[in-house]
Design a protein that fits this description.
Length: 539
């Protein structure tokens, strides 16, 4: 069983503490802070009312990037920091973060002419400080069309080529949680992680007393903390936020190689078309969302905004709304600026800084607001420096779980004489992109139980062994956790429905602590899938 559900009386096994740090929020910032604090030798407890990466941290554009568009906003410091962190992540998690080339098409009449693109690319390379992934350059019209055949050719003048990286966002968040658990074990530091556990009350006492509700079992408990950090993302205090909804479409993959950085013809907003796994991710939108983050949904106007533009820019792409294989939406928890800065940055979400803020909202109680996914490690360092004092951060020196043996090319040499030597190359790469060098553990799970070596559902590459492995090692509680975030099965032919049912059956057989609301969770999951289908296929 996952560590957070070993004990059916989960909250009773916590112990009151006090813990050096209690973190509320299991997104990328919360798990990143947990890893940093544990590696400094502090005891940590982390709680999330849902799954790890259950909100914004699994609804990103799947990019680890410097933010080339921020150059126009003269945010050179943010770009430089992001490029530095990109380099660190490529080294620490080569299985989850990989280089990706992008093309910026330049059309006649565009506000971004050839000279501006050339200048931006040159500056972007300079800010890499010798860590660029490839040489940026300007290409002529012919080469752009050769690389992206479906691209509209009318008025095309050329395009800029540059390099960034793409990631598996949900699994990168998960890797930080696993790292925190393992580092705590190696340092004999107390670490607890509870998903589906809500902090319902925080007392202003010394130490701080927090009241907990286990949403799986319905049990209640308390815990003591010397310090508290709230990394709530869009669930932060609305007074500190500019909440911005971002929507993405997932389409069948139509070409290999380059991604696209595009400019919308209506509002000039930048968006991307990114080859990601076996699909094409298109997005994002950026619209205000003052409502409940739990109710963020893709609306018809979001779909039209992106899809109409894709048909204009990629007219030869043989897709329609009915061919959309998935949609997802998340809320960017942008930090609200005050005073003169607020006036200078404008009113729209796109003009709001991606920098983070740390707000001390009580004695030894802090709230983190804003930030970019790419810079989460630096943000975690900043938070821990603020909470514990400067010094002691070592997260930049150590690989994340699965990245210990480097890229796949380095790992393959170690497969000689093992069962992995005989696996098809595409299966090895698939497992590596999910588990890194720990793919051996997944294979061991299937080898020890031959029934686990079978596909989870007919036609899928995923094995039953992967569900069992995630139950034992990756904090898996509900079937949706596996289908939506541990894997990408939700983008299968049937929207992941068969995989969900098969995963549910596996959980019923192998989990020692079944969620009391498993049936209700299933009904809710299928309801949302049906709503997404209706959106893409109205009538």
């Amino acid at each position: 069983m996952p560590e957070n559900r070993k004990d059916p009386c989960a909250l009773r096994s916590l112990g009151e503490g006090p813990y050096d740090l209690v973190i509320i929020g299991g997104g990328i910032n919360g798990t990143g802070i947990a890893r940093d604090a544990v590696m400094r030798g502090y005891s940590v407890a982390l709680f999330d009312k849902g799954d790890l990466a259950g909100g914004t941290s699994s609804a990103s554009s799947k990019m680890v990037h410097g933010g080339i568009r921020y150059l126009e906003q003269i945010r050179f410091g943010l770009v430089h920091e992001s490029l530095r962190e990109r380099h660190i992540l490529l080294e620490q998690a080569p299985h989850l973060v990989r280089p990706q080339s992008f093309i910026i098409p330049v059309y006649a009449g565009s506000g971004r002419g050839p000279w501006k693109i050339r200048l931006g690319l040159r500056l972007y390379d300079l800010l890499c400080m010798g860590r660029r992934l490839g040489r940026s350059r300007y290409m002529d019209r012919r080469e752009v069309l050769e690389r992206i055949p479906p691209l509209a050719d009318a008025g095309l003048r050329g395009g800029g080529l540059y390099f960034d990286a793409v990631m598996d966002d949900a699994r990168l968040c998960l890797a930080n949680a696993i790292a925190a658990r393992e580092e705590a074990g190696s340092r004999s530091v107390d670490f607890q992680l509870r998903t589906y556990t809500e902090v319902v009350e925080q007392e202003s006492s010394t130490p701080i007393r927090l009241h907990l509700l286990d949403r799986v079992s319905g049990r209640r408990g308390t815990i003591l903390a010397k310090r508290v950090v709230r990394a709530l993302g869009p669930w932060s205090d609305p007074k500190t936020l500019v909440p911005s909804k971002g929507v993405h479409l997932v389409l069948p993959r139509q070409w290999d190689g380059d991604g696209l950085l595009l400019q919308h013809s209506v509002d000039n907003r930048v968006f991307f078309a990114i080859p990601w796994k076996d699909s094409l991710v298109v997005g994002t939108t950026e619209t205000p969302h003052p409502g409940n983050p739990d109710r963020v949904r893709v609306e018809t106007e979001d779909l039209d905004y992106l899809f109409c533009e894709i048909r204009r820019i990629l007219p030869q792409l043989p897709v329609s709304k009915s061919s959309i294989i998935g949609v997802f939406a998340g809320i960017r928890p942008l930090a609200r600026a005050g005073g003169l800065l607020a006036k200078l940055t404008g009113k729209g979400p796109g003009s709001v800084s991606r920098k983070h803020r740390i707000i001390e909202d009580g004695r030894r109680s802090f709230s983190l607001v804003g930030g970019k996914y790419t810079t989460y490690r630096a943000i975690a360092k900043n938070v821990c420096d603020r909470v514990f004092g400067r010094g002691g951060c070592t997260t930049h020196k150590h690989p994340l779980p699965g990245g210990e043996e480097g890229p796949l090319e380095d790992l393959i040499g170690n497969f000689a004489g093992t069962v992995l030597e005989h696996l098809p190359a595409e299966e090895i790469e698939r497992l590596y992109r999910r588990y890194g060098c720990r793919l051996r553990e997944v294979i061991d799970t299937s080898e020890s139980n031959p029934q686990m070596a079978a596909p989870l559902v007919p036609g899928a590459a995923e094995l039953k062994a992967e569900v069992l492995y995630c139950l034992q090692n990756e904090f898996l509680v509900y079937p949706g956790d596996f289908v939506d975030r541990r894997t990408t099965l939700r983008y299968g032919a049937d929207g992941g429905r068969a995989a969900y049912r098969a995963t549910e059956e596996m959980i019923r057989r192998h989990s020692k602590s079944l969620p009391a609301d498993l049936e209700a969770a299933s009904e809710d999951w299928f309801h949302h899938r049906d709503k997404d289908d209706e959106l893409c296929n109205p009538g």
